[in-house]
Here is the input.
Amino acid sequence: MPADVHADSLPARLRSAREAAGLSQGQAAKLMELHRQTITEIEAGRRRVTGDELAKFAGVYGVAMEWLLGKDGGDGHRVQLAARELASLKDEDLDRVLNLLRTLKRS
Here is the structure.
């Protein structure tokens, strides 16, 4: 992430959501009907996002607009991100994660 982009800013959240959705900038650009360089500029904070684009980003990335704007406290999105990651694990890896969570809860 560029040094001039704050970790909790809209550009950073857009990048995080894109990565969590498993999309490259090129794939996101295609789905958004934008140029890849436009995605780069947005994520670097050098280009503003219109309201229509924001809504489309939210839909393509499967996140709430409120989260992108930093207005939901972030917990809901973090749970969604965790669920996506867990869903992609093999059964034995998921069992390991669940055991780790149980251990952490007891601590």
